[in-house]
Every structure is written in C-alpha cells, then in structure tokens.
Amino acid sequence: MRDKKPISKLVCFTDPKTPAAEAFRTLRTNIQFASYGQFQKSLMITSAEPGEGKTTTITNLAIVLAQSGLNLLLLDGDMRKPALHRVFRLSNEQGLSDLLFHRAGIEEVTQRIPDIGIDVITAGPIPPSPAELISSPRMRAILEQLKERYDMVLIDTPPILPVTDSQLFATFVHGVLLVVRSGKVKMDHVKKAKALLEHVGANLIGAVLNDKKVSKNSSYYYEYAEKNSR
Q1: Whole-structure pTM over 0.85, yes or no?
Q2: Which residues pair with 74 in a beta bridge?
Q3: CA–CA distance, 228 with 230 (Å, rounded to integer)
Q4: Residue 1 burial by CB count (10 A; 0-12/13-18/19+): exposed, middle or buried?
Q5: How many CA atoms lie within 13 A of 168 on its CB side?
Q6: Looking at per-residue confidence, does 8 or 34 come out higher?
Q7: Nearest partner of 229 among 194, 200, 197, 181, judged by Cα
Q8: How far is CA 159 from CA 96, 172, 195, in A?
Q9: How far, CA to CA in Å, does 40 sit from each of 28, 31, 72?
Q10: Burial, 147: exposed, middle or buried (Cβ in 10 Å; 0-12, 13-18, 19+)?
Q11: Using one digit for the tens of pLDDT, what is the confidence trace for 113-168?
Q12: How far apart are CA 108 and CA 154, in angstroms?
C-alpha cells in the first residue's frame, strides 16, 4: 500500500511557491517553446552519469505539466535501477517489464496518483536483459498505445554512459532532455553523452543544469532548456 505522505523531492507539490518550484514551471514553458509552442507527445529524460538528478527533474516536471491540464503518464524506463516507485511510494510488483513479457496489460500496471493528477507505470521486476526488451517491437508498440491514451508520456531512463538503454529509447520518442549536475559531471562526459544521443538521431530539445549555485539570493536550483543546447 502506498504511503500517502509525499517525499521531500516533490517540491512542486509540497512547496509550490518556492524558487525551486518556479524553476520547474519555467522549464515547462521552455520545453513548450522549444517545440514551437506545443508539448512533445513523448519526452524522455536522461543524464550522462548516475546521481545528476534526472528522477527528481522528471517527477517535478510531471507535476507542473499535470497542473497545466495535461493528461499525463510517467513511465519508469530504468529497468536496472528503478526509482519512481520509491519517489511516489508505489508498489513495484508489476510494471513495464510485465508489459514487455505479456504478463499484464496496461490497465493492470498503471497506478493513479489522484492528489497530484498523474498516472505512473513503474519499472516492475528487474529483467535479465533490459536493452533487448527496450529494442524490441513490443516496446515500440507499448509506447504507441500509451501515446494514444495520454496527452504526454514522460519516460525516466538510465544514464547514457554506463548502458545503451537511453539511446534505444531515444529512437522512438519525440524529444530528449539531458540533465547535467553542476560540479559533478565532467564536461567531456556531457559532450560524449550528447554525441551518443545525436548518433542515434535523437531530438535533443534541451538541457537542465541542476544544482547550480548562482547567488546568495537565488534558488539553489537553476535550470534552462535551450533548443540545440551545446
């Protein structure tokens, strides 16, 4: 059973008037303008390395997108080290891996968070070979069904440099957002991650600079989304 108390990382839900929450609303606007005034039907978020804040970014972005009136699904595409079920305190007994193995249908694995207004599909039990499942026709078919049901599908994916999963996801989503944690990741690793995405033809719509210290009076969190970010 889910604990109804949200955890502190959901700042856009728990503290919507803070500078950090405002930064996510700005990110929402920038994503819209980066897509010529329209939201991407499917958007995945990744990072070069672990620990850069991609899950925190995607969960808060999902909240502000839902607050704008979008019917939204949040999908945990990280079947190696899933995190969405912990963030929202959901069951992970069934999820994406069950869909891929035909063990369950979409309705069975979808969990509603009514107080936030989004649907979530967790990663489910960790499979032996996630990359093979992601590259399968079944994965593409599942995403097409989800795009038909929702205004927008947001996908949390693994970091790019350690595994190929995010590159595979990038081949069948409409847009990609790269999270970069200031002071943690080396610039050449960010460039390599960007190059790997470009290699598979990903539509990299922008980047989020996370944990940037800008001034004493500014938010601890600074973000930007820029078309063709460099």
Answers
A1: yes
A2: 120, 154
A3: 6
A4: exposed
A5: 18
A6: 34
A7: 194
A8: 18, 17, 14
A9: 11, 8, 12
A10: middle
A11: 998 999 999 999 999 999 999 999 999 999 999 999 999 999 999 999 999 999 99
A12: 19
Count Cβ neighbours within 10 Å for each residue of 47-66 and write b for 16 or more, e otherwise. Answer: bbbeebbbbbbbbbbbbbbb
Q: What is the 3-state secondary structure (H, E, C) of the chain?
A: CCCCCCCCCCHHHHCCCCHHHHHHHHHHHHHHHHCCCCCCCEEEEEECCCCCCHHHHHHHHHHHHHHCCCCEEEEECCCCCCCHHHHHCCCCCCCHHHHHCCCCCHHHHEEEECCCCEEEECCCCCCCCHHHHHCCHHHHHHHHHHHHHCCEEEEECCCCCCCCHHHHHHCCCCEEEEEEECCCCCHHHHHHHHHHHHHCCCCEEEEEEECCCCCCCCCCCCCCCCCCCC
∠ CA(126), CA(141), CA(33), 5° rounding?
A: 95
In percent, the amount of the chain with pLDDT more than 70 equals 86
Residues 113, 4: Cα–Cα separation, whole Å? 10
| Residue 11: both structure tokens together | 């700042």
Cα(158)–Cα(193) distance, integer angstroms: 12
Domain residue spans in the chain?
Answer: 11-210
Cα separation, 188 vs 173, whole angstroms: 25
d(CA 162, CA 164): 7
CATH H-level, domain 11-210: superfamily:
P-loop containing nucleotide triphosphate hydrolases (3.40.50.300)
pLDDT at 204 over 70: yes
Residue recorded with tokens 């509603």 = 112
Residue 228 to residue 206: CA distance in whole angstroms? 6
